[in-house]
Amino acid sequence: MAPRSKKTVDATSSPISMADLARELGVSMTTISRALSDHHSIGPATKQRVLKLAKKLNYQPNHLAAALRKGQSKLIGVIVPYIEGRFFATVVHGIETAASKAGFNVIICQSSEDVAQERKNVETLLSAQVAGILVSLSRDTNDFRHFEKVRKRGIPLVFFDRVLESDTVNAVVLNDYDGGYQVTRHLLEQGCRRIGHFAGPQHLNIYRNRRQGYLDALESYQLPPDEQLIIYSDMTLEDGTESMRQLLALPDGGVDAVFSAGDTAVLGALQHLKSKRVAVPQQVALAGFSNEAFTAITEPMLTSVDQRCEEMGQAAVRLFLELAESRGDSAFLQRQVILQPRLFIRESSLQGTPSLDTVAKQANGISC
Amino acid sequence: MAPRSKKTVDATSSPISMADLARELGVSMTTISRALSDHHSIGPATKQRVLKLAKKLNYQPNHLAAALRKGQSKLIGVIVPYIEGRFFATVVHGIETAASKAGFNVIICQSSEDVAQERKNVETLLSAQVAGILVSLSRDTNDFRHFEKVRKRGIPLVFFDRVLESDTVNAVVLNDYDGGYQVTRHLLEQGCRRIGHFAGPQHLNIYRNRRQGYLDALESYQLPPDEQLIIYSDMTLEDGTESMRQLLALPDGGVDAVFSAGDTAVLGALQHLKSKRVAVPQQVALAGFSNEAFTAITEPMLTSVDQRCEEMGQAAVRLFLELAESRGDSAFLQRQVILQPRLFIRESSLQGTPSLDTVAKQANGISC
DNA sequence: TTGTACGCGTTATCAG
DNA sequence: CTGATAACGCGTACAA
Questions:
Q1: Which of A290, B20, B200, B230 is placed for a possible disulfide with B207 were both Cys, Cβ 3.0 to 4.6 Å?
Q2: pLDDT tens digits, one per residue of A93-139
Q3: Are A64 and B64 in contact (CB < 8 Å)?
């Protein structure tokens, strides 16, 4: 029976509360509260005394208690399909940076591309009493039912990147249409006329819009759409390889360019072309979408469309702050922020005049 | 004076509380509380009635209130230098997945490699009353002072990847030493004898250990260390290029291999070698560290050491849960989890016998 | 098995 | 300018 030391060394000192400060100074808690929250009706002398003691005793405000009382926390909930991967990681970076600048903390949730999980995430965030929710939809989300409660509670809700266009929502999106248009125009200007397209799942706004941009660019050159040249897939590396194989096997000589709605797939295409000794960009020009880091590493380097990931995160937070500002009366005020994509032209799409200085300038522009 | 509609349509219905349920059913709040928290002393009949109504009225528990009451929230705070970039993004993915499985939410903070910011992050998380803190130190953190409060409060604190070895802390780290040792041994087995090393900032445990593994592997082959062959830098792409230039310029014929403590730098080296028409791996073999996605894309593909990012996140959460379990009495119980790295051998380091099937098997192993 | 009453730490309302 | 008091929503000794 070794006598256990009474005054145990790891005494976990309980945190200091406003009541402690009040007792110590012989004033009321109200005074403490006012001093700390910089209220106007407070004597500068007492205020200093309070702040002094707070510093000395290492007072930590309890956000939970404040939130409970005010019915308003300083937490923002974020729901993304997954966090690893450059796009969402960078968006989240933008969100966290902007949010913390505005005094908010960020709770992160992953839906794993699963509606059921997304539903749970919403519940959890509501239970956590978040001040707002920013969400990029899972791949197979088809309706807004699970977001109705959020709206009912008057909690600001902002969608980004992946949204359902069917409904009126606050959203920050990239102008995917323009991205598809720009890149296709670029390929046309390089002299390409049989341009293939790797298209993603069409129920997602982003892939639908990129495809439409592609089609409209063709039309601006009086080129009729050719469904043979559009390959639909989930845009994985293997999908890209297989899609490229299909295009090469077309009866009338294949294509002289491909615009892929994703970089991963275009990488697969590039690998296939190299294995088949098809010269890129001389015989087939390539362009992708997302401006992934590896596009500046491949040989040749890949032309791609930058999605402004970080700006998207910042914009989402800004939009949330606006909505939070005008609580209630903006419930019907639908705000849309549309970011302009940026085309990064690299070797894989330069046919005739290399215009090398332009390339050099932009080649390393992995800004996002 | 347009008369404002009294029954405004966007009536943000206030959330249902336990009191509401109690009133509705004509029972006390205690009963409600017990029914919802699955307490033992509760009639199965009343329990069902409560749960029924809760579902019907869409009751959302208020975690804030519960946390305030219990002095224990269901939040885990995570501090990383930055979130974008594969390593931390994937670790955070692992953390969030494991945490949510255990019923915890994750608050994410970025220190931006800045101690001052890290200090602020700690304060914020304490104010948010998190149940624990997981942290990977900023590059220029040299002491633990700002973590003392965390310890004082008895809040579980777990470090991962970047730690200060000077102190006794709970930590999850990669066996960087072994990673450096393995990869250097591999280069030696390929016949290389003048192996250069790109070393990172030596005050960081990870870079110091990788370097030591390199040195010990050399010694196991009776090769004396040669400080000329070790280039110190911040391991950026440009650093890699410049470091490679320096090694090539050495008087006695340069090197026949390089082990870089980071993939980005080894990529710079590869680019430089290609521009100088030095054959990789025939004239100079290359190996990096981190198993970045691009290592499987370059030509030749780059040999690298995988850091088990996702496992690291999971392990950090597991460790936190253990500590949270045994509150208090484990304050001095120091736990260390050391993950074993995995070497991915690719083309850039294969000299003599290609043993191609081995390569093929591992080439795409971007598991992390 | 159920109900009563109090407290977690903070802020807002009302008197002085 | 300051203080007493009530509430926010929930959990839990204690009593019934």
A1: B200
A2: 999 999 999 999 999 999 999 999 999 999 999 999 999 999 999 98
A3: yes
**Alpha-carbon distance A231 to A197, whole Å?**
6
Which three-class secondary structure state does DSSP give residue A106? strand
Asked if strand C contacts A30 at the CB level, meaning under 7 A, the answer is: yes
B331 contacts chain A (CB < 8 A)? yes
- Measured CA distances, A87 to A173, B88, B356 (Å): 13, 14, 34
| Peptide linkage before A201 cis (omega within 30 of 0) | no
Percent of chain A with pLDDT over 70: 90
d(CA B155, CA B174): 24
Domains of chain A: 18-61 (1.10.260.40), 73-174+309-339 (3.40.50.2300), 176-307+342-363 (3.40.50.2300)
Q: Which of B95, B89, B174 is nearest to B134 (CA)?
A: B95
Weakest-pLDDT range from A273-277, A305-309, A333-337? A333-337
Predicted TM-score (pTM) of this structure: 0.90
Which residues in range 25-44 of chain A are in contact with strand D, contact meaning CB within 7 A of any of its atoms?
27-31, 34, 40-44
Residues of B in contact with A265 (CB under 8 A): none
**Per-residue model confidence as pLDDT tens digits over B300-320:** 999 999 999 999 999 999 999
H-only helix segments in chain B:
18-25, 29-36, 44-57, 63-70, 86-101, 115-127, 148-152, 176-189, 205-220, 237-248, 263-275, 309-325, 356-363
Residue A204: half-sphere exposure toward Cβ, Cα within 13 Å: 23
Distances (CA, A) of B246 to B196, B227, B293: 11, 13, 27
CB interface of B with A, residues 149-208, below 8 Å = 149, 152-154
A82 touches chain B (CB under 8 A): yes
Does the pLDDT value for residue B73 go beyond 90? yes
CB atoms within 10 A of CB B128: 23
CA A283 to chain CA centroid, Å, is 35
**How many other CB atoms sit within 10 Å of the CB of residue A226?**
15
Angle value at C-alpha B320, between B318 and B324, nearest 5 degrees:
120
Where does the pLDDT of residue B331 fall: very low under 50, low under 70, confident under 90, or very high at 90 and above?
low
Q: Is A224 exposed, middle or buried (0-12, 13-18, 19+ CB in 10 A)?
A: exposed
A62 touches strand D (CB under 7 A): no
Phi-psi region of B45 (alpha: psi -120 to 50; beta: other; left: phi over 0): alpha
Distance of CA A323 to the CA centre of its chain: 19
Compute the distance between CA of residue A50 and CA of residue A36 in angstroms, rounded to an integer.
8
Q: What is the DSSP letter of A147?
A: G
Question: Is the pLDDT at B104 greater than 90, yes or no?
Answer: yes
Residue B67 CA, nucleotide C6 C1', distance (Å): 17
Q: Is there contact between B57 and strand D, defined as CB under 7 Å from any strand atom?
A: no
Q: Is the CB of A18 under 7 A from strand C?
A: yes
Amino acid symbol at A26? G
CA torsion sign, A161 to A164 to A168 to A169? Answer: negative
CB-CB neighbours of A210 under 10 Å? 31
pLDDT of residue B202: 92
Q: What is the DSSP secondary structure assignment for residue A233, as one 8-state letter?
A: -
A105 chain-B contacts, CB cut-off 8 A: 107, 109, 124, 128
